[in-house]
Amino acid sequence: MTFYNANAVSIAVIKDYKIEWVKAYGYADTSEKRTATPQTLFQAASISKSINSLGILKLI
Questions:
Q1: CA 4 – CA 21 distance, rounded (Å)
Q2: Rounded to an integer, what is the distance from CA 30 to the centroid of its chain?
Q3: pLDDT tens, position by position, for the chain (60 residues)?
Q4: Which residues pair with 10 in a beta bridge?
């Protein structure tokens, strides 16, 4: 997080098409010192492409 200057990250591990575990690190709002949780909403950015393709392949 320091290297990329990120305030927070959320990590989800998917195994056998199911969420194995989820963890969040850092601050969702640095001014309020509100910590990030697994329920904190983040922009999906480029990771959504691989998750979308996984869903399409599962449908096929």
A1: 23
A2: 18
A3: 999 999 999 999 999 989 999 999 999 999 999 999 999 988 777 777 888 898 999 999
A4: 24
Q: Distance (Å, rounded) from C-alpha 36 to C-alpha 2?
A: 16
- The torsion angles phi and psi of 53, rounded to 5 degrees, stand at -65, -35
The residues pairing with 23 across neighbouring beta strands, listed in sequence order, are 11
- In which residue are the tokens 């393709």 written? 53
**At 59, which helix (H) or strand (E)?**
helix 47-59
Classify residue 13 as left (phi > 0), alpha (psi -120 to 50) or beta.
beta
